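Weekly sync, protein design subgroup
Attendees: M.S., D.O., the rotation student, P.L. (late)

Item 1: inverse folding check
M.S. brought a backbone from last month's batch and wanted to see whether the design step gives back something sensible before we order anything. D.O. pointed out we never logged the input encoding, so this time it goes straight into the notes. Structure tokens as presented (418 positions):
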């Protein structure tokens, strides 16, 4: 009963957050590009609860729509173009939640204009573009961050602490999107706008594999990409790919942006990790009869990895065996299960770090972005430019193995913009 009450109270706080704190006089002045559906959850609401962040301006392609969006979210200024916003003297940092194919261009333009940049994932459309963009990151003291929010959550910290990265044998990451969320004209199904389910949704899956193995894959050994009907046959809406990692382990990812309800119920964001069976040397094993050995295989499962603030479950299963050395014949076996959760860093063993149960992963990420701009230490959780490049290399691997061209952003010149 206590768990149910906590669940209801926590989600009530998320939906009805506490009164925002007063803003500091030197709060970072942000501008937003576009009127995306993700921005209210990923940036606008987190910004309200951060005393050092204010949203001062927004720009969109459709003036009337942008004005309505600004009014709805209490954004004081509407600028006539993206170019006007990134060059505006009253904007210190730019949030880029545009279609994937425009991330590279407008992150680069904002950096060139001397702004800090928070860009939605993926930061670019392929590894070459990522190298081009993230070389500029940090120049002149500027902060550039690709918004892979999942890994800023306290729950992710606790999850990876249960895993011995060198002993990981198999990983399966599965998450889908409801087909009803996206129309056929959505940019995710348009190659010319950086479309593709693997690039958009699969970014999460690949990043999870890299975080669990602690390394980049050596090879994509299988990639099945299900493509859209012509004229969008270069775009995948479903992917199922497997990678091999330096420790010999394999990681499989599955996702579908046109999933139905039944598929979503089974694939809402779950990570299954299996570690290699290994011998245990402890006090219990030392007391075994001569010729017997103690072995264990660990399985760690994270349910609802992407938006764990609403609810998540970290399940740790250890399967023990007592076997006869040489023959391997089993003498006995048993298993243990431990369930963990962490909705704040205090629950994750870091009471020195800020956090509230009303904070989504995006709010934890924003905390670290502001810390970087201010030159503060923070939690130490970050997505480096090199990490973003390595991320894109693995996505490129799966496209190439699956017989599709790597994604690409539209060409642009920094000198001209509208």
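Designed sequence read out in the meeting:
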């Amino acid at each position: 009963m206590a768990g149910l009450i906590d669940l209801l109270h926590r989600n009530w706080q998320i939906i009805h957050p506490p009164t925002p704190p007063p803003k500091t006089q030197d709060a970072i002045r942000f501008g937003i590009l576009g009127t995306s559906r993700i921005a209210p959850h990923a940036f606008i609401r987190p910004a309200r609860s951060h005393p050092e962040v204010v949203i001062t301006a927004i720009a969109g392609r459709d003036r009337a729509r942008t004005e309505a969006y600004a009014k709805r979210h209490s954004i004081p200024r509407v600028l006539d173009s993206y170019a006007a916003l990134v060059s505006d003297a009253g904007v210190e940092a730019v949030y880029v939640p545009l279609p994937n194919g425009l991330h590279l261009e407008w992150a680069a333009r904002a950096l060139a204009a001397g702004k800090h940049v928070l860009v939605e994932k993926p930061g670019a459309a392929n590894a070459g573009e990522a190298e081009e963009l993230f070389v500029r990151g940090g120049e002149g003291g500027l902060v550039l961050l690709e918004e892979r929010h999942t890994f800023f959550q306290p729950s992710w910290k606790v999850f990876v602490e249960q895993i011995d990265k060198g002993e990981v044998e198999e990983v399966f990451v599965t998450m889908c999107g409801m087909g009803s969320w996206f129309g056929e004209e959505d940019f995710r199904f348009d190659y010319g706008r950086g479309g593709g389910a693997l690039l958009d949704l699969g970014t999460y899956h690949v990043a999870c594999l890299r975080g669990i193995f602690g390394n980049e894959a050596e090879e994509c050994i299988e990639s099945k990409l299900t493509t859209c009907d012509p004229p969008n046959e270069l775009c995948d809406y479903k992917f199922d790919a497997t990678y091999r990692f330096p420790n010999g382990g394999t990681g499989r990812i599955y996702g579908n942006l046109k999933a139905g309800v039944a598929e979503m119920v089974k694939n809402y964001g779950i990570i299954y990790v299996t570690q290699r069976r290994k011998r245990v040397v402890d006090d219990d094993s030392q007391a075994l009869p001569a010729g017997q050995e103690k072995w264990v295989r660990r399985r760690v499962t994270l349910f609802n990895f992407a938006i764990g603030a609403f609810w998540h479950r970290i399940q740790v299963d250890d399967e023990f065996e007592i076997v006869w050395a040489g023959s391997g014949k089993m003498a006995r076996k048993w298993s243990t299960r431990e369930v963990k959760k962490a909705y704040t860093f205090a629950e994750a063993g870091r009471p020195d770090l800020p956090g509230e149960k009303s904070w989504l992963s995006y709010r934890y990420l924003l905390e670290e972005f502001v810390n970087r701009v201010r030159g503060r230490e923070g939690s130490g959780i970050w997505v480096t430019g090199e990490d973003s490049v390595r991320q894109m290399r693995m996505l490129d691997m799966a496209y190439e193995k699956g017989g599709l061209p790597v994604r690409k952003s539209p060409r642009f010149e920094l000198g001209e913009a509208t």
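Discussion: The two ends are 56 Å apart (CA to CA). The longest strand covers residues 292-303.
Action: P.L. to compare against the previous round before Friday.
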